[in-house]
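FAQ

Q: What does a record look like?
A: Structure on top, sequence underneath. For example:
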């Protein structure tokens, strides 16, 4: 039995209409052998035991225990999506196959995109090795018979030394300065209906990287900048800051590079109206500089005391209902720090597995007037998924105009509705 520490805030924040799932939608060149994939995933749990644990309520808290039920790969005909609950045999990951498309999702309290990507890469390596009777060359793949490292297990936030008081005071001042600025929030163009709307855009990798280098940017900085400009073009009257929350992997700062737990913080990139008159190269340089500064391990570690303080306080509250209320307050505060999110951890390195893949898009649950942009790079393409809790495509179209104004091309692969997932955690 494993008691939760840092991830507890995410488990406690699960509600009837919000599960906090993420994952990948991978389109292959040929139909998927569902039975073989299921067999491989079940075997993979011996190497990745933490992906087979289920959530149990012991009367006053959530704990993780070994799941003795079989993992099932479902087809799109198997009914509504379920995660955490009985419809998924209580697993925290769910896989659904529709012909040649794999929809692989996970609960965000279990892991993050980087942690799940490692697992998926191992599964696909084993799957295609068996299917083709030949092991593909995949750099850095974790083999299912390899040893579990110490880095993978345990909570990296437990028993951690914190920076000196002076460092914390400096960080608190920076946070106060940020709060004093007014944040522009996307107005709801249509009534949110609980669904996540996905707009999947493909760009040529060589063209996009050349452009990024020419403007002194990086992929996440450039996408964040273009969307900020797109939003401002739709709201020229806006005087508040448009803020892009760029996801940053904390594993280096935690000194736990192989940790399977969700280890993500946000770097806030602030687009002020006066920046509009600056040369675009200057704008991109500013955003890239903010990412570099925010990614410095010492800077990241300076935020640990606040996080650890929240975790300690949360886990010390006797009442389960009160813990849920505090968790909701923490998550809501984090959600209100930016106008939209951008996530691009690193280029996907699937090696010879790429020959079997047509596209790879990250997917994530989004509610209300929130927007999430997920970026993946594979097979000479950038796969950019813009997800939001409302159906209007005005910001997507504005983003495409920004891309085309910079003499780049893009293609909308697909627009679809990602239906919500049900769950069966205890609610108070």
């Amino acid at each position: 039995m494993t008691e939760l520490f840092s991830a507890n805030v995410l488990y406690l924040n699960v509600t009837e209409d919000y599960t906090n799932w993420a994952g990948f939608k991978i389109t292959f060149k040929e139909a998927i052998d569902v039975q073989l994939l299921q067999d491989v995933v079940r075997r993979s749990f011996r190497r990745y035991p933490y992906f087979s644990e289920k959530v149990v309520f012991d009367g006053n808290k959530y704990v993780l225990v070994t799941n003795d039920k079989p993992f099932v790969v479902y087809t799109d005909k198997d009914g509504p999506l379920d995660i955490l609950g009985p419809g998924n045999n209580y697993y925290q990951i769910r896989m659904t196959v529709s012909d040649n498309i794999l929809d692989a999702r996970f609960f965000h309290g279990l892991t993050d995109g980087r942690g799940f990507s490692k697992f998926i890469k191992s599964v696909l390596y084993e799957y295609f090795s068996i299917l083709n009777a030949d092991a593909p060359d995949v750099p850095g793949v974790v083999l299912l018979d390899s040893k579990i490292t110490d880095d993978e297990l345990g909570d990296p936030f437990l028993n951690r030394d914190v920076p000196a008081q002076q460092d914390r005071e400096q960080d608190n001042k920076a946070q106060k300065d940020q709060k004093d600025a007014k944040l522009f929030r996307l107005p709801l163009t249509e009534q949110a209906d609980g669904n996540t709307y996905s707009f999947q855009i493909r760009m040529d990798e060589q063209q996009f990287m050349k452009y990024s280098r020419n403007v002194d940017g990086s992929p996440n900085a450039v996408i964040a900048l273009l969307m900020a400009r797109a939003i401002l073009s739709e709201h020229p009257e806006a005087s508040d800051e448009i803020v892009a929350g760029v996801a940053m992997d904390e594993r280096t700062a935690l000194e736990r590079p192989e940790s399977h737990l969700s280890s993500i913080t946000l770097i806030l990139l602030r687009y002020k109206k006066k920046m509009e008159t600056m040369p675009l190269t200057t704008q991109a340089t500013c955003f890239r500089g903010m990412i570099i500064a925010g990614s410095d391990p010492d800077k990241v570690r300076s935020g640990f005391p606040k996080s650890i303080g929240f975790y300690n306080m949360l886990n010390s509250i006797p009442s389960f209902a009160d813990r849920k209320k505090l968790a909701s307050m923490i998550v809501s505060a984090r959600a209100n720090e930016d106008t939209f999110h951008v996530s691009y951890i690193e280029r996907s390195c699937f090696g010879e597995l790429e020959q079997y893949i047509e596209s790879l898009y990250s997917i994530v649950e989004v509610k209300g007037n929130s927007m999430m942009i997920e970026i993946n790079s594979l097979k000479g393409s950038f796969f950019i998924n813009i997800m939001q809790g409302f159906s209007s495509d005005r910001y997507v179209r504005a983003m495409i105009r920004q891309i085309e104004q910079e003499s780049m091309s893009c293609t909308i692969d697909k627009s679809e509705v990602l239906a919500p997932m049900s769950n069966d955690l205890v609610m108070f």
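Q: Is there anything notable about this one?
A: The chain has two domains: 2-141, 165-349+364-418.
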